[in-house]
Structure formats: C-alpha cells, structure tokens
Write a structure and sequence with these properties.
Blueprint lengths: L1 E5 L4 H12 L3 E6 L10 E5 L16 E4 L8 H17 L6 E5 L3 H4 L4 H21 L5 E7 L8 H4 L2 H9 L9 H14 L7 E4 L14
Parallel strand pairs: 1-2, 1-4, 2-3, 4-5, 5-6, 6-7
Length: about 220
C-alpha cells in the first residue's frame, strides 16, 4: 500500500516507517528535518507540516499516519491544526483505507503541559469525526495514544535516575514502550484491523489506571 507518515526522522515516526518498509509497503515521509531513512521504497519530503503551501502533491494515499508533533513548542499549531490540514488534504478521499492519529495518554489524563494536553485532547474528538466521514469509503480512523516511549524527546527524564525511579513508581508495568512496540500497534490498527474505528487506543503501561487509593491500615 501507499503509506504517508509525518514526522519520520526519529522516534516513533521513524520506527513506524521502518516497520512498514520491512512489510513491503511504499512509504512517503514528511518531516522538517532531512531524511534519516535510506530505502528504495521510501521517499522523503523535507517540509514543516504547518507549511501548507509547500506540502507535496501526492495522490493515492491509502494509509495516513499523523505522527508529527511537538511538546511545549507551538503544540496546538503542530499537533492539532496541522494534523487536521494533513488529514483533510491526504486522508479524506476515495483511495483511503485507514487513518491513524498518534495522540497521547495525556489527552486522557491531562497530566502534562497545558497546550500539549489541549492539542492531544482535540485529536480524540477529531478522530471520531473523521471516522464517521471516511466510513463511506470503507476506511477506518483511530488514534493511538501512547504513554511513556523511549525516544530522544524524553531523554531528559530517561537520563535522570531520580526522575526515572519516580516515573517507574507511577507505571504498573515498570517500563516504557520502545518505538518499535508502538510501530507494531500502528501496523495492526491500519493494516490488520478493518472493523475498529473511531476509537482512542490508550497504550501506557497502566499509568492512567494507577490511582492512589488511600485508606486506614
């Protein structure tokens, strides 16, 4: 299939692109940084997702994965507004088979930077809106909402022993996901899955269910 992925130069996006290439798909990547993947079936477009006038002219997109995002840096413009524009441009059309929006566990808990939470929270409802519209093409649309993932974006806490120990206390499975694990979820939701749609899939190692129940001994 023809797969368009945004934010492919590092972390989750790069892992997703690599996974789809391994499975034999044609992958187009959009990222504001230069390509970090070299493959005969991979085409890279160096472009900021907010630069609507200079986005590549692509047709025949069958799978769209909106991964590009920022944290505490123009979050609403990048994570939500650009995601909407990318989806309306490439995703809502007759050739589409599946759309996946990479959200965040913070959309469910509100436990992060204010604009980041708001941007990811908007993805939850927009995903449902798109799912209703692309159903006419027999396509699905879901969001994949990870908790902690071992990416360069999170190295500031991953490399701090005290903070990391505290984070692990809040995570029942006592680990974070690898980008490759998230890539497998992305593949399942867009290629294997044909019936689940309009859903927000929370994958966070149980962090969001770790409520601290206080009672007398």
């Amino acid at each position: 299939m023809n797969v368009l992925i945004t934010g492919t130069t590092q972390g989750i996006g790069r892992a997703i692109a690599a996974h789809f290439l391994q499975k034999g798909h044609i992958v187009w990547g959009i990222d504001r940084q230069e390509a970090s993947i070299s493959h005969e079936r991979y085409t890279h477009y160096t472009c900021d997702v907010r630069d609507y006038q200079n986005l590549p002219a692509l047709s025949g997109v069958q799978i769209l994965i909106n991964n590009a995002g920022t944290q505490n840096e123009n979050d609403i413009d990048v994570n939500l507004k650009a995601l909407i524009h990318i989806t309306e441009t490439y995703g809502v059309q007759k050739d589409i088979k599946s759309i996946l929006n990479i959200g965040s566990a913070s959309a469910h808990t509100g436990a992060e930077f204010p604009e980041y939470c708001a941007s990811k929270g908007g993805i939850l409802s927009y995903t449902k809106n798109v799912a209703l519209r692309v159903a006419a093409f027999g396509a699905t649309c879901n969001s994949l909402d990870p908790g902690g993932v071992l990416t360069p974006l999170n190295e500031c806490v991953m490399n701090d022993p005290e903070l990391w120990a505290h984070i692990m206390e809040e995570t029942p499975l006592k680990k974070w996901a690898t980008p490759e694990e998230i890539a497998e979820w992305a593949y399942f939701l867009t290629v294997v899955n044909t019936f689940c749609t309009g859903q927000n899939i929370l994958v966070d190692g149980g962090e969001s269910i770790n409520y601290h129940f206080v009672w007398k001994d």
